[in-house]
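As promised in the previous annual report, we have extended the structural survey to additional targets. Below is the entry for Tryptophan N-monooxygenase 1.
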Amino acid sequence: MINQPEILKRASKELDSVVGRDRLVQESDLTYLTYVKACAKEVFRIHPIAPFNIPHVSMEDATVGDYFIPKGSHVLLSRPGLGRNPRIWEELLKFKPKRHLKDDGWDVVLTDSNLRMLSFSMGRRGCERVLLSSTMTTMLFARLIHRFTWNAPPVCQILT
Ligand code: HEM
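The corresponding C-alpha coordinate record, generated without further manual editing, is:
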Protein backbone atom coordinates (compact mmCIF):
# COMPACT_ATOMS: atom_id res chain seq x y z
CA MET A 1 0.00 0.00 0.00
CA ILE A 2 2.96 2.30 0.62
CA ASN A 3 4.17 1.48 -2.87
CA GLN A 4 0.76 2.35 -4.33
CA PRO A 5 -0.17 5.55 -2.44
CA GLU A 6 -3.57 5.84 -4.18
CA ILE A 7 -4.62 2.59 -2.42
CA LEU A 8 -3.45 3.85 0.98
CA LYS A 9 -5.21 7.15 0.32
CA ARG A 10 -8.48 5.42 -0.55
CA ALA A 11 -8.34 3.32 2.64
CA SER A 12 -7.57 6.45 4.76
CA LYS A 13 -10.42 8.32 3.10
CA GLU A 14 -12.83 5.50 3.91
CA LEU A 15 -11.69 5.59 7.55
CA ASP A 16 -12.08 9.37 7.71
CA SER A 17 -15.61 9.19 6.38
CA VAL A 18 -16.73 6.23 8.55
CA VAL A 19 -14.82 6.99 11.76
CA GLY A 20 -13.72 10.61 11.48
CA ARG A 21 -10.64 12.04 13.15
CA ASP A 22 -11.84 12.40 16.74
CA ARG A 23 -12.00 8.81 17.90
CA LEU A 24 -10.48 5.36 17.39
CA VAL A 25 -11.96 2.69 15.11
CA GLN A 26 -14.55 0.62 17.00
CA GLU A 27 -15.94 -2.83 16.28
CA SER A 28 -19.23 -1.29 15.17
CA ASP A 29 -17.40 0.53 12.33
CA LEU A 30 -16.01 -2.64 10.74
CA THR A 31 -19.11 -3.47 8.68
CA TYR A 32 -18.70 -0.20 6.81
CA LEU A 33 -14.94 -0.49 6.18
CA THR A 34 -15.33 -2.49 2.97
CA TYR A 35 -12.24 -1.15 1.24
CA VAL A 36 -10.03 -1.68 4.31
CA LYS A 37 -11.30 -5.28 4.46
CA ALA A 38 -10.64 -5.72 0.75
CA CYS A 39 -7.04 -4.57 1.39
CA ALA A 40 -6.65 -7.09 4.25
CA LYS A 41 -8.07 -9.86 2.05
CA GLU A 42 -5.66 -8.97 -0.73
CA VAL A 43 -2.78 -9.27 1.76
CA PHE A 44 -4.02 -12.77 2.67
CA ARG A 45 -4.24 -13.66 -1.02
CA ILE A 46 -0.86 -12.46 -2.18
CA HIS A 47 1.26 -12.70 0.99
CA PRO A 48 -0.12 -15.61 3.06
CA ILE A 49 1.48 -16.12 6.43
CA ALA A 50 2.72 -19.62 5.51
CA PRO A 51 2.93 -21.34 2.14
CA PHE A 52 1.17 -24.56 3.16
CA ASN A 53 -1.81 -25.50 5.25
CA ILE A 54 -1.27 -27.96 8.11
CA PRO A 55 -1.01 -31.48 6.58
CA HIS A 56 -4.12 -33.67 6.65
CA VAL A 57 -4.58 -37.37 5.90
CA SER A 58 -7.49 -38.51 3.72
CA MET A 59 -9.73 -40.98 5.56
CA GLU A 60 -11.09 -42.48 2.33
CA ASP A 61 -10.67 -42.32 -1.44
CA ALA A 62 -11.80 -38.94 -2.72
CA THR A 63 -11.93 -36.97 -5.93
CA VAL A 64 -11.47 -33.21 -5.80
CA GLY A 65 -11.73 -31.53 -9.19
CA ASP A 66 -9.23 -33.30 -11.46
CA TYR A 67 -7.43 -35.01 -8.58
CA PHE A 68 -8.00 -38.51 -7.29
CA ILE A 69 -6.77 -38.71 -3.67
CA PRO A 70 -6.38 -42.30 -2.42
CA LYS A 71 -7.21 -43.12 1.19
CA GLY A 72 -4.25 -42.52 3.52
CA SER A 73 -2.67 -39.76 1.40
CA HIS A 74 -0.99 -36.88 3.17
CA VAL A 75 -2.52 -33.75 1.69
CA LEU A 76 -0.82 -30.36 1.72
CA LEU A 77 -2.67 -27.38 0.28
CA SER A 78 -0.56 -24.62 -1.22
CA ARG A 79 -1.75 -21.13 -0.33
CA PRO A 80 0.23 -19.41 -3.11
CA GLY A 81 -0.99 -22.18 -5.47
CA LEU A 82 -4.53 -20.94 -4.86
CA GLY A 83 -4.03 -17.23 -4.18
CA ARG A 84 -1.70 -16.84 -7.15
CA ASN A 85 -3.48 -19.22 -9.52
CA PRO A 86 -3.35 -17.64 -13.00
CA ARG A 87 -6.55 -19.50 -13.99
CA ILE A 88 -8.44 -17.60 -11.30
CA TRP A 89 -6.77 -14.26 -10.72
CA GLU A 90 -6.00 -11.56 -13.26
CA GLU A 91 -2.78 -9.59 -12.72
CA LEU A 92 -2.12 -12.05 -9.93
CA LEU A 93 1.08 -10.43 -8.63
CA LYS A 94 -0.48 -7.00 -8.44
CA PHE A 95 -1.78 -5.80 -5.08
CA LYS A 96 -5.28 -4.90 -6.17
CA PRO A 97 -7.85 -4.81 -3.33
CA LYS A 98 -10.73 -3.76 -5.55
CA ARG A 99 -10.84 -7.29 -7.01
CA HIS A 100 -12.54 -8.31 -3.72
CA LEU A 101 -15.20 -5.60 -3.80
CA LYS A 102 -18.62 -6.79 -4.79
CA ASP A 103 -20.55 -5.06 -7.57
CA ASP A 104 -23.15 -3.83 -5.12
CA GLY A 105 -20.34 -2.25 -3.05
CA TRP A 106 -21.58 -4.09 0.04
CA ASP A 107 -19.79 -6.14 2.65
CA VAL A 108 -16.45 -7.92 2.14
CA VAL A 109 -15.51 -10.96 4.21
CA LEU A 110 -11.96 -12.24 4.69
CA THR A 111 -12.92 -15.85 3.97
CA ASP A 112 -13.46 -17.22 0.48
CA SER A 113 -16.22 -19.80 0.37
CA ASN A 114 -15.25 -20.79 -3.19
CA LEU A 115 -11.73 -21.69 -2.00
CA ARG A 116 -10.09 -19.43 -4.58
CA MET A 117 -7.71 -18.61 -1.75
CA LEU A 118 -7.02 -20.36 1.53
CA SER A 119 -6.82 -18.20 4.62
CA PHE A 120 -9.02 -19.86 7.22
CA SER A 121 -9.61 -23.18 5.44
CA MET A 122 -13.10 -24.61 5.78
CA GLY A 123 -15.13 -27.67 6.70
CA ARG A 124 -14.57 -29.73 9.81
CA ARG A 125 -10.93 -28.70 10.28
CA GLY A 126 -11.40 -25.08 9.23
CA CYS A 127 -10.61 -22.23 11.60
CA GLU A 128 -12.85 -22.32 14.65
CA ARG A 129 -12.78 -18.55 15.16
CA VAL A 130 -13.16 -16.93 11.77
CA LEU A 131 -15.29 -14.08 13.07
CA LEU A 132 -12.97 -13.30 15.97
CA SER A 133 -9.83 -13.46 13.82
CA SER A 134 -11.40 -11.41 10.99
CA THR A 135 -12.44 -8.79 13.53
CA MET A 136 -9.01 -8.67 15.15
CA THR A 137 -7.25 -8.48 11.78
CA THR A 138 -9.49 -5.70 10.46
CA MET A 139 -9.44 -3.72 13.70
CA LEU A 140 -5.65 -3.76 14.02
CA PHE A 141 -5.11 -3.04 10.34
CA ALA A 142 -7.68 -0.21 10.32
CA ARG A 143 -6.15 1.42 13.39
CA LEU A 144 -2.67 1.27 11.88
CA ILE A 145 -3.89 3.04 8.75
CA HIS A 146 -6.09 5.48 10.64
CA ARG A 147 -3.68 6.70 13.31
CA PHE A 148 -0.29 6.59 11.61
CA THR A 149 1.27 8.16 8.56
CA TRP A 150 3.08 5.63 6.42
CA ASN A 151 6.02 6.30 4.14
CA ALA A 152 8.67 4.13 2.54
CA PRO A 153 11.95 4.39 4.47
CA PRO A 154 14.56 6.70 2.95
CA VAL A 155 17.20 4.89 0.96
CA CYS A 156 20.01 4.28 3.42
CA GLN A 157 23.52 4.93 2.35
CA ILE A 158 25.87 2.40 3.85
CA LEU A 159 29.12 4.07 4.80
CA THR A 160 32.11 1.84 4.40
C1 HEM B 1 -6.01 -14.18 11.04
C2 HEM B 1 -6.02 -15.12 11.98
C3 HEM B 1 -6.26 -16.60 11.74
C4 HEM B 1 -6.09 -17.34 10.61
C5 HEM B 1 -5.61 -16.87 9.22
C6 HEM B 1 -6.45 -18.71 10.94
C7 HEM B 1 -6.41 -19.79 10.06
C8 HEM B 1 -6.68 -21.09 10.40
C9 HEM B 1 -6.59 -22.22 9.50
C10 HEM B 1 -6.14 -22.17 8.04
C11 HEM B 1 -6.96 -23.34 10.18
C12 HEM B 1 -7.05 -24.76 9.63
C13 HEM B 1 -5.78 -25.51 9.90
C14 HEM B 1 -5.91 -26.92 9.36
O1 HEM B 1 -6.02 -27.10 8.15
O2 HEM B 1 -5.88 -27.84 10.16
C15 HEM B 1 -7.30 -22.91 11.53
C16 HEM B 1 -7.73 -23.78 12.52
C17 HEM B 1 -8.10 -23.37 13.78
N1 HEM B 1 -8.14 -22.08 14.26
FE1 HEM B 1 -7.57 -20.42 13.25
N2 HEM B 1 -6.83 -18.76 12.27
C18 HEM B 1 -6.75 -17.50 12.79
C19 HEM B 1 -7.05 -17.12 14.09
C20 HEM B 1 -7.59 -17.93 15.04
C21 HEM B 1 -7.99 -17.51 16.39
C22 HEM B 1 -7.85 -16.07 16.90
C23 HEM B 1 -8.46 -18.61 17.03
C24 HEM B 1 -9.00 -18.78 18.42
C25 HEM B 1 -9.19 -17.81 19.28
C26 HEM B 1 -8.38 -19.73 16.10
C27 HEM B 1 -8.75 -21.02 16.39
C28 HEM B 1 -8.58 -22.11 15.55
C29 HEM B 1 -8.82 -23.49 15.94
C30 HEM B 1 -9.31 -23.98 17.31
C31 HEM B 1 -8.53 -24.28 14.82
C32 HEM B 1 -8.57 -25.82 14.74
C33 HEM B 1 -9.88 -26.28 14.13
C34 HEM B 1 -9.92 -27.82 14.13
O3 HEM B 1 -9.02 -28.45 13.58
O4 HEM B 1 -10.86 -28.37 14.68
N3 HEM B 1 -7.86 -19.29 14.90
N4 HEM B 1 -7.12 -21.54 11.63
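The chain has a mean pLDDT of 92. Strands lie at 56-57, 62-64, 67-69, 74-75. These points will be discussed at the next consortium meeting with the crystallography subgroup.
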